Automatic annotation (TrEMBL):
Required cofactor names: [2Fe-2S] cluster
Sequence intervals crossing the membrane: none
The species this protein was found in: Neomoorella humiferrea
Any one Pfam family match given in the protein's UniProt record, by short name: 2Fe-2S_thioredx
Binding residues annotated for [2Fe-2S] cluster, in chain numbering: C83, C88, C124, C128
Protein name listed in UniProt: NADP-reducing hydrogenase subunit HndA
Keyword Cytoplasm annotated: no
Amino acid sequence: MEACQCEAKWEELDKIIAAHRGRPSDLIEVLHKAQELIGYLPRQVQVAIAEGLGVSLAEVYSVISFYHHFTVKPKGKYQISVCKGTACYVKGSPEILERLEKELGIKAGDSTEDGKFSLEVVRCLGACGLGPVMTVNKRAHGLLKPETAVEVLKQYQ
Ligand code: FES
């Protein structure tokens, strides 16, 4: 597989697709499994799934775009998720995100060139009382200010 450079993963993906062949209603389930296997959903994988399930590529892409969980880009070693749910938003999460984007030199949805960090926006992490909140590889950091968010980042650099 060019996308993930791994023959074994292509084989595994083929098996997943084969188990759902010709079943368009299984699209979300197959996308979940493919992302679990590869880590993200590059175009080659989308094409293989579309062909296997008998749906259009546009349909695959629209599902991927609709569900925040899916990503078409590889994630970084450290995945930073900044909460922009209502409680965090009103407590200043836009400023946190802006500061992290500046510090990392990337926009939300992207990864740093060295593959170390990726940045994304999420909706409510379930810790509203600690807002604004971000997680780094699922570890939560709360009551953030732009400067403390940068301090957190430094722990991982
Ligand atoms: S709104 Fe951010 S944790 Fe709930």
